[in-house]
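Protein modeling request. Please complete all fields; requests missing the sequence field cannot be processed.
Requester role: graduate student
Desired output: 3D structure, token encoding
Chains: 1
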Amino acid sequence: MSDYKDIIRKPETLNWFKAAMGMNITRHCLLDIVKQASRELYDTIRKEINRKHGILEHVVCSQCHTPHVLPCDTDNKCCHYKYGSCTFHDIHKSQRCRAYLCNEMCKEIVYHHRFRNRTKPKSFRGPTWDNTDARKWCADPWQIAKCYLSKDGYKDVNKADDTDFNGIVNVLLNCEFFQMYFKDDLTQKENVCTKVLLLQNV
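Delivered output (202 residues):
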């Protein structure tokens, strides 16, 4: 037991603890911003769909599964072909939303993704559709924000409050809508978000 006390007293252990506490406090502050901004993102998407297609903002849908609204394409990082058929679209085939809404929401989510450009390496292209449930897009803005998380480890994280520091920062970085909350230019290769993510992984 005395060995553990000695470890705790070491300066490097105390520094690690301070860094962990700082990260936790920062995450807590960023969480409020992300939750509020996710709601604003949803409202912005709905206004844009209304402007472009005349679909009123009170129209909602809870019937479309993510594969319904996502075209079958290996570039979306979900479609995998086995024995001539796509495992992602096996049960739910691509189709048009009955409310003419969810397909347009899908396009808007792509539009707001910082790395939607097809010239980027494949691993950085567009939203992470595996994380989200399109049936909940109209009821829970966090389901839209989840499209901007990294691929691994977030599929079952259904609340912003349950998302770790790394996930919160990825949402801020990957969704261009969040740029308005920063003075730093997030289009730069090195910015406040990339620096924080790099420090966390040191």
